[in-house]
Prior knowledge:
The protein folds into 2 domains: about 5-75, 2-Layer Sandwich (Phenylalanyl-tRNA Synthetase, Chain B, domain 1); about 80-160, Non-ribosomal Peptide Synthetase Peptidyl Carrier Protein, Chain A, CATH 1.10.1200.150. It has 7 helices and 3 strands. The chain has helices at about 5-20, 30-35, 40-50, 80-90, 95-110, 115-125, 135-160, and strands at about 25, 55-60, 70-75. It is globular, with a radius of gyration of 17 Å.
Amino acid sequence: MSSLSDRIEYYLKNLLTETEAKNIIKIQRNKVAEKFNCVPSQINYVLKTRFNMASGYVIESQRGGGGYVKIIKIDHDSKLKILKLMLNKIGDSISQRDANNIIQRLYEEDIMTKREKELLETMLHRQNLNLNLPDRDILRANMLGSALQVLAKAEETNKEG
């Protein structure tokens, strides 16, 4: 059985694909919370962890009586642009959660295969990086950055050929 966060994420992503204005939805936290029988802060958690820039989304919030949250899925016109954006997001260190968000985004954009996704997630998992923080996050950033550079180089080669 999937977690509540997974179900909320699935619901919101379905709304994004089903709306007329593809890739943009407006929701009210309270209404979504009612639908899932949870508190609005659970919706905030899902928005913060699963609909962030690294995952390819922008969140706009309007507070007040008629307040809403707008979720915008960012479309990039090329896989190479997405790879470069993700490379810039990595920085000098990266948490496992943020690394997995980047990997998931690249998988959803068909930039990497399911096999590549699973290999990277396994390689970058804290259990396999036998270091303490912050060294573990630094190593993870270096490894993920190297993998994305290989994908970017392959994408450039595909563009040329």
